[in-house]
Structures are given as C-alpha cells and as structure tokens.
Amino acid sequence: MTKLDELWDHRDVSRPLVVLDGMGGVGKTAVATHWLHLRRAGFPDGLLYANLSEADGSPVTPEDALHGFLTSLGLPAAEVPTGPGRRSAMFRAFTAERHLAILLDDAVSAAQVRALLPATSSVLVVVTSRRRLAGLGIDDATLITVEPLEPDASAELLRETIGRERLSAEPAAADLIIAACGGLPLALGVVAARLRARPLRRLEREANSYVRHLETADAVPEDVRDVQAVFDASYAELPGGAARLYRVCGLHPGPEVALETLADVLGFPLERIEDDVEALVGSNLLADADADRVTQHELLRRDARSRAEREDSSSDRRAIARGFVRWYLARAQLADTVIHPHRQRFAQPDTAGSPTFGNRASALAWWRRELSTLRAAFAEADRNQWDEETWKFCEASWGFFLHHRDYEPWLSMNTAGVAAARRCAKPLVEARLRSQLAFAYAKLHRYDEAVSQNMTALRLSEQEGDGQTRATALSQLGRATRGQGDLPGALGFYRQSVALHEQLGNRRGVALGRRRCGEVLSELGQTGEASIELEASASLMDELGDANQHARAVMALADIRERDGRPGTAIEMLSAALAVVERLDSPYYTAEILASLGRIEGRHGRDEEARNHLARARELYARTRDPQATANDGE
C-alpha cells in the first residue's frame, strides 16, 4: 500500500485517481477497501461503492452506476434524470464541494470508468480491475499492479486464521499450501477457511487435497471453485488466438518464455504472437519480463494446462510439448559448442534458423538463465520417452556441468540418459553417458560405482571397436582407481589412454592424459618425471587454445615448484593462471585455483592473501555445491 500512501500524501498536486490491476484473486478489492478504511477520516462526506461487473461478467452501464451514486448521495430515485449525460452532469454537481472516496470495483474498461469520474480534486477515486486499464493514463491515473503475496506474508495470513501453533506443527505441509496457493489471498483464504472449519484436520491432508483439486476439473468443492471462477471470468473474455496462446504457455516447461520461442514452436509470425501476448498481458494472464519475455504465475500455468487438456487434442498437446523440448535442446547444443568447443560429439546441433552465441560468456549466461526450464524440458522428454532428445540433452549439458557442478540432478539426468541410449540401441552414446556418470561418482567419492560404470563403458567401446570411447573409459578408470588410493594402477590406466589418443591423433586427449599422469607421478614423489608430463600438457593445451586446461596443468606444476623450494614461483604461476580462468567465467575451476593459491600462501607467511583467496574459494564452491573443495582430479 506504499504507492497508495504516496498518492494520498501528494493529492494536492496530482489527480486523485488510482487504478489497481492484477490477476484474479490477488486481492485488489481487499487492498482497496483496507486502505480506504485506514484513511476514512479523510473522507468526511463518506464512501461510494459500485461493482462494475454483473454476475455473468458483463459490464454494468455507467448510467446504472450513476443512478446508484445519486440516490446514495440523497437524491430521491424519482428525481434522478434519465440518460447518461444528464446523470453524469448531476453527479458532478453533487460532488463538486464534497470530500468523498469512490471505489469502482471490477471495472471492465477505461471508458466505463471515465464516465463515472467527478470533476473535482476533492474526491478520491480508486478503481480495481483484472484488466490493465492503460487508457486511464490520459486521465492522469496512477496505475498500480497488485502482486501476489511473498511466502512470508502468505504464512502470516494463514497464522492469523488458523493459529501459529497449528501452522508451526507441520512446517512442510504449510510450505506446500503456501506454494500451491501462489500468494493469492483468495486461494489462501479458501484453504484457511477449510482448515478453520475442521480444527482436527491435518495440514498435510489439506495440502494434498487442495493440490489434487487444483489439478482436476472433476468433483471440485464449491469453495475451491470460487478460485477457479476468477480465472474463468478472465479466460472467457479472451479472443481465440490469445486463448490458444494462454493454453500453450501452460504447456511450456517453465514459467518464463521468450516471444521468439513461442513464435518458433507454433510456426506463427512474431507479430501475431505479440498481438496475442498483448491481450494476455492486458488481462493479467501473463506478465512482462525483460528482453521480449513473458512470465505466467504458477496457478495460471496450472489453469492453462488444465484447459489445454480439456480443449486441445492429445496429439496437439504432445506436438507443442515436444516442440518446446526440441527448441531448448537445439539452443542447449549450440551453447555447449561455445562453452566446451574442444569436445567430440555424437549429436551435432541443428543450426538452421538458430542464432549463434557470440561468445562463451553469452552462452553461459543463457544457460544459467534457462537452467530450470532446461531441466524441466529434459524431464518432459524423459517422461514421454523421447529417447533421442533425452540422451542429446545429457551430452549437451556436459560443458555447463563441468563449470557449475550440481551432482544430484546430474546423476539423475545421466541415469535416465543411459536408459534412453540403450533403448535407442546406441552403445557408444551409452558408453559416453556412463563415463559422465562415473566422473560424478568419482567426484563424490563413490568409487565402486564409478568403476562399475567405467567397466561397462569400456566393454561397450571394445564391443564397438571405438578407440575414442575406449580411451575415455580408460581415463575415467584411472580417475576412480586414483580415488581408491591405487596410484600405480591409476597411472597405468592413464598411460593406456594417452597411447590410444596418440594413435587416434587426438592431441587434446593426449594433453589431458599427460596432465593426469603428471599429477599421479607428483603424488608418487616422482617430481622430475611429473614436471616433464605437466609441462608437455601445458604447452600442448596452449597450442590448442584451451586456456582452462592450460591453467590446470600450470596449477599442478605450481605444486611441484613449491615442494622444490620455490614458493614465490608457485604463487606467481597460480596468480597468472587465476587471471586466465577468471576471464573464462568458470566458478568451479576458479575455486580450484583460488584454493591452491591460498594454501601455498598460508604455508609461506602470506596470511591475509591466503584468507582472502580461501574465502573466495569457499564462496564459489558453495555456489557450485561441489563436495570436494580440495580435489585436483577434475576433467
């Protein structure tokens, strides 16, 4: 209500007309009446109220509303003139010297409101509407969109109704209710009233029941239908194209979507999408986000999905859902080629008609922004057993995962990808995804599972006679064996991998393998041989233009330089490597180098620098949720 207070404080210099809009059920009328009640002393001549929508949603005529106002102001009904013009003139005359507030509730149009405005600044007019009555801007109206309640405010509303103890006794169920109601006071009020009427009912049971009612159109209790009715009223007024787009947005895998995405998936001109979006935003069924994007409230998404299930054929819904999945997959593949350009891929992105990412930073920024939607698109592909899309998502996610570790979703995703590749009869893809699984298992110290996945990947690669896949499996076996403490065994696997990469002419594979050999040799105390391997790896990565892996080889060399009694050289090497990796926008690898630098500084009297670098490392590790803050056995 801050904006209403500001309007009140400046009422002498601005027209006292305010419009509260927002989605149905968000509490516009409640906000207006509560604020007017708090300010009632400022309206000594009273408050006038008119509901400007009939029960069936049709608009009340200004002529009828003015009749009610005039009689409320004391004019006998028999003396009320006929015709909107005469009634409006008399209304303005009656209000000219009065200090009133007028609440015009559930207005349908700017024209409807404009006919009811007094001609004096001594009367405050508050309008509520599900529509954005932007046309009243020319009348100097202050336009305010009422937003859903934040979770804390939603919880407080429930506490006031059902009691703090009852809410605190079942915090998880309370959170589910708050999430299901989406911050809509109308929905929260319905649930609170149901719980207050049944004091012995558990919140968990009510939460599950309410969520179930939201997801079905059958046998819904009357009070829950009250929430649905506000959406029905808004939806009923939409033109056909906007109604269709509303349902399509409900099938989108995330709440926020670009107009470009909608146009591509539907095969419509962007101008048509813009017109339909304009209608939906005007009805508060979509909201503007930035950069030609719109967002849909979660309760509206549920409503839109439910309407799609009732009004659209299953084949149409399936085609739209798969269209979204393929759209995001294609962009994910393009982004991955920029984030991790050196990797060989089984699936090549379809670049036809797709914009390219200008640089690695823009690809990473896109991925971060769309991460929840990408995961939801993957889940849609997996749920429908769209196997080609499922395994391709796993492959395309590798580059982002390396720099932003999130292990549990990654394990779940790649487990599903392995099953999809097997159903597609793609053994080499299956081997690749098993190696990805093994990488994550090893980083989580689940070495037995890592070995099991790698052995299967090795068997598949040998069965198919694919040297590249075999080399990858051998390298991953080296990682797991190293984690188990068998350094000679790990060195053997790494050297086999290097030899295979040399036969295949894969220079990056050779460089990666030699770095890993160098790291193991260093752990074994063979620092001279380790330096040779690491220097060769760093040189080759520099030639290949892989700045990140060059920096990681340098990091391992710095460890040897410190042990050789040259900590200053080690710190200089790590500082240079840090500058390179920071430019690459790689939180995980930046944290690795910061941690290594901080540890060396701490051991050699540079305490303040060590504290700063280790603190930054902890912050980045926490952001990436990586459990191995000191591991040096990355990609």
Give a brief description.
This protein is mainly alpha-helical.
What would you say this structure looks like, in words?
With 635 residues, this protein is mainly alpha-helical. Helices cover 66% and strands 6% of the residues. The protein contains 30 helices and eight strands. A five-stranded parallel sheet has the order 2-3-4-1-5, sandwiched between helices. Strands 6-8-7 form a three-stranded antiparallel sheet. The two termini are 53 Å apart.
- Helical fraction: 55-70%
Secondary-structure content class: mainly alpha
Q: What's the story with the biggest beta sheet?
A: 5 strands, parallel
Tally the beta strands: 8
Beta strand %: 5-15%
Note the quaternary state here.
single chain
The dominant shape is elongated
Mean pLDDT: 91
- Poorly predicted regions are 629-634
Q: In which order are the strands of the major sheet placed? A: 2-3-4-1-5
Supply Rg.
32 Å
Distance between the termini: 53 Å
Number of helices: 30
